Input
Amino acid sequence: MERATPSILCSYFVIVLILLLLDTSVAEPRSQIVQNICGNRKTMGYVTDFADTMETITQQMSTRGYGVAFTGTGPLANYGLGQCYGDFSLRDRIICYTEARYVLPHCFPSNGQRIYLDGCFMRVENYTFYDQYLGPEDRRVCGNRMAKGSLFQQTARRAVQQAISNAPSNKGYARSQVSVPGPSNETAYVLANCWKTLSVNSCAACLQNASAFMLGCLPWSEGRALYTGCFMSYLSTEKSNSDDKWLFLLANDHIAGKVVVIVVSSAVILGVGAFIGTYVWSNKQIQKKRKGKSLS
Output
């Protein structure tokens, strides 16, 4: 068997390094878990049915951004729902639902599991729940406890009202941003998203309830509502760029971390490539000298 030459080994090393760096570059904050909720009773369902449900949902999410599926019958059935939020690209969907699919089975064989991320949602139950929009596990999560003044609070409420007015007639999704008046240089950003299985009226009712509860996080600068049929969030970020789209993505931590990692990763790849190139060239020169000595 031939031994791998140093140049081939170096090539393998570069490929592995690049894959690792790419994997690091997609570990974005919006794939971070907000909350994972497990049911309080155990139902001994079939692992294969659960896995089949997850596989079907993730295939649908990769192509259209949401998916529904069920397997099994009776109390051992698995009904599933997965959805990415309306501003996600195909690449973002893959990152988010991969994380959700990895974490969700940790609840198995609980009678119910749901996971909220900042970019997507998944739920599995042993009954059909697709038309539900309110439930006993609905909650809010308040973060970044930096108290804001009355002007920001008023602005956040206006932004929330814009989002809940637009979302039901916009396929269940809306985002809004309203600048705080005066010299504060702040903006309130709001995201609202209903699950695709809801009617327009159910979506509106979910967002109305979720927004009222979420605004209880004020005066804190960040709040989320995790509801049976929808997800909402508001946050504050100071303006640092005239491009509103860029600001909104930054406000949602969508690409800020990725930009830094890509720059660092590119520098590392170039550095490693230069090092390997020098090593391979030096190795060839040594081999030529050895051949020259053996011939003489």
